Each structure stands twice: as structure tokens, then as C-alpha cells.
Amino acid sequence: MDATAPPARRPASGTPAGAETIRLEGVSKVYPDGTVGVQELDLTFAAGELTVLVGPSGCGKTTTMKMINRIIEPTTGRILLGEDDVTRADPVQLRRRIGYVIQNVGLFPHQTIRVNVGTVPRLLGWDKRRIRERVEELLVLVGLDPAVHGDRYPHQLSGGQRQRAGVARALAADPTVLLMDEPFSAVDPIVRERLQSEFLRLQEAVGKTIVFVTHDIEEAVRIGDRIAVMSEGGRVEQFATPAELLGHPVNEFVADFVGADRGLKRLAVTGIDPLDLERPPVVHVADGLADARAALQTAGARWAVVLDDAENLHGWLSLDRAQGAGTVGSAARRMEAWVPREASLKTAFATMLQHEAGWVAVLDGDHFLGVLTPESLHSALRRSVEGRAPETAGAASG
Ligand SMILES: Nc1ncnc2c1ncn2[C@@H]1O[C@H](COP(=O)(O)OP(=O)(O)OP(=O)(O)O)[C@@H](O)[C@H]1O
């Protein structure tokens, strides 16, 4: 099927250095026993993007991924890595361009973390010093302290730390592509969420083309630039950005798969629209309290936002505290409930709940833009479900 996708939420600024596009053209895999692993796949994994393959067990996700690095040979069709047909490439050269991370990591148990991470550079014949320096750099990059963890064996690390070491090993020869097969499924949900966030930050830094397999739609929505939802027999039912998928599932299969709570899930991938913001009365630090009282009374409001001379957020002032003489600055309180403009609606909602606040301020840097209230959040959510809201810059922020 044709799986031409709409633009991703992280607009690609040209082809990132060190990443390559992967194109599957009419790719099918029929196993010797006649089982159809995947059929007639036309998919493009854009350079520098993280594409998630998601779908129920046995739908062909792993088959698709393993054909890219030739662990499985396609029965028909072509797979291009950049301009090269992978079925014609030298397998050793090919794997140098492709890092591979699997469930339970697959670290060699009798080798230290340092030796594990240096595996591919050693195979490529790098000199010892270069390998040592690269390993140190990678361990730091994935958040492992070389002095603490470098000489340990895999069983002496936590599941999350092993996973990080697995990612470091996959990145060792600076591949253009990372294939990740359920890499976070063996750790508990809290560690998993942390690994996902760390991984998104890492991807911001390295900008690889990533193909990521999971059967968990929550994970797909959280980390994917684009998602391919697959069904039994290796068919792509929909190939779209997370927001598009949640807002407009193309058929019942996808709607069922993304879940009845897709509206709520969409909160995490929907950004704040400045048009949603309400603008309460604004007073300034240096204003007199008498003026502030007058402003509140005129607006019929019980509180005002307090800005400093540079129009940056200072705090807020309630009518109760705006009594007597003195300046607004002396009576204002700190604003706890605020989010940056890039935050998702989910983060805004969570911040509001966390501070038991009736509203949450939205800032662009230090600059005050307005507030979200339960009412404005509700209308933003409605628009979000209808697919008319802006997407966040990345799920990492939400
Ligand atoms: N070596 C094989 N011989 C025959 N059939 C196979 C072989 N490997 C996989 N299959 C079949 O191909 C189909 C796709 O399998 P694949 O492992 O790609 O699915 P998956 O989506 O990754 O599943 P899971 O989420 O359970 O890992 C399944 O029906 C599976 O049974």
C-alpha cells in the first residue's frame, strides 16, 4: 500500500548529517512454510526521524525491521539505504551503517561494559586508543559514568543501565540508522518512561534515522515522529504523525488499536494555542495597591497577574492581599503553576492539578503570554480531539 505521510511534528531541516533515508519498495516476505510475514510494503523512513512500527503480536514488525539489516532476506521488493540497495550491499559494510538494539539488550555477559560498547569498532580494526576514547564518549553520552560502570559486567548493572549500554554499543561506529526492537520492554514502567525521555534527548543530539518496534501504542505516541500501525499479515493500516493518528484514525482497526481514550492520549501531543489563552488583569510590581484594587474591581476579577518592568512574570496578586497601602511587589505571591509555551496540554493540565490551581500561566521564556483555565483547556481538548490544534514540538516536552 502507499504510505505517504503528512509532515512530521519535528520539521526536518533538510537531511541531517549522519542520517540516511530508508525506503521499502514493494517489499514482501513469505517464509518457507508459506507464512506471510509482510506483504507489498511501500514505506519511507525519513532521514533523522524516529519512525515507530506498532501493531499486535505477529503483524510483521520484527520481520520488517530485520529485512533492513539483512538478518532476514525479503522475498520480493527493494530496500534502499540512502541510494544503495541493501540486498546488494556487503553485509559487514551495511551493519556498520546500521546500529541494532534489541529487547534484553543482548550484551555479552562475560565482557565488561567497556568491551561490549567497543565491539563494532574492534571488528572494524580501529586502534586501541581511538576505541578507548570513543567508548568513554559514548558512555557519558548515554548517562553512564565510565569510572563507575565501565569495568562492570552486564549482570552488575540495573536493567535500565544495561539498556543504556546497549544503545551506546549500537552507536559505537556512528551508524546512520538505528534499528530498535522493543528496546525498553524489559524494564518497569517508571524506568521505561525515564529511558524514553533520555532517549529522545539523545536523539535530539545524534539525529539518527530510527526504526523503533513496539506493541505499545502509548510508547509509540510518546516517542514517534511518525507511526506505522500494522495489522496481521504485515499490512500498514496507517502511517502518520501521532497527532494525526489519534485525531483521525483511518479505519476501525486503527481506532481500536489507539484506544477509546485517544482524546486523552492526544493531550500529550497537542500544543498550547495562544488563541486559547485567557488574559486576566495585569498589574506591575511598582504599582500602588490602591491602583491594583481599582484594576481588579474594574475587571470584576479576584486576582491579577503581576509583571515586572520588563513585562516578565513576577507572580500574582489576589484581591484579599491587595489591601492597604504599599506596592504590588510587597503583596504579590510567587507563581507556582506555570508551563513553558512549548508544553503539551497534558503538562498544562497536570501542572494545574499538581498545584490545585484554577489556572496555569503560560510563559515564552520569562515573558508572560496568558493563562489556561479549566474552561480554556476543555475547549483546547475538544479542538485537539477534532484534530484542529497545533502539535507539540516533541513528546519529550509533554
Ligand atoms: N522463521 C519464520 N518462519 C515462519 N514464520 C515466521 C518466521 N518468523 C516469523 N514468522 C511469522 O511471521 C509473522 C510476523 O512475525 P514477526 O516476528 O515479524 O511479528 P511481530 O509483529 O514482530 O510480532 P511480536 O510483536 O510478537 O514480536 C508471524 O505470523 C510469525 O509467526
Kindly describe this structure.
34% of the residues lie in helices and 22% in strands. Strands 6-7-8-3-9-10 form a six-stranded mixed sheet, sandwiched between helices. A four-stranded antiparallel sheet has the order 2-1-4-5, covered by helices on one side. A three-stranded mixed sheet has the order 11-12-13. The protein has two domains: 22-260, Rossmann fold, CATH 3.40.50.300; 274-397, CBS-domain (Roll). It contains 16 helices and 16 strands. The site of adenosine-5'-triphosphate has 13 residues, from helix 1. Residues 31, 33, 35, 37, 55, 57-63, 215 line the site of adenosine-5'-triphosphate.
Quick summary of this structure?
With 398 residues, the chain is of the alpha/beta class. It has 16 helices and 16 strands. The protein folds into two domains: 22-260, P-loop containing nucleotide triphosphate hydrolases (Rossmann fold, 3-Layer(aba) Sandwich), CATH 3.40.50.300; 274-397, Roll (CBS-domain).
Per DSSP E runs of 2 or more residues, the count of β-strands stands at 16
Strand order of the largest sheet: 6-7-8-3-9-10
By secondary-structure content and strand pairing, the structural class works out as: alpha/beta
Q: Provide mean pLDDT, rounded.
A: 85
Q: Tell me the CATH superfamily of the largest domain.
A: P-loop containing nucleotide triphosphate hydrolases
| Residues in helix, % | 25-40%
3D shape: elongated
Main traits of this protein?
ATP binding; four-stranded antiparallel β-sheet; 398 residues; ATP hydrolysis activity; alpha/beta; six-stranded mixed β-sheet; 34% helix; CBS_dom_sf; ABC-type quaternary amine transporter; disordered C terminus; 16 helices; binds adenosine-5'-triphosphate; 22% strand; CBS-domain; Rossmann fold
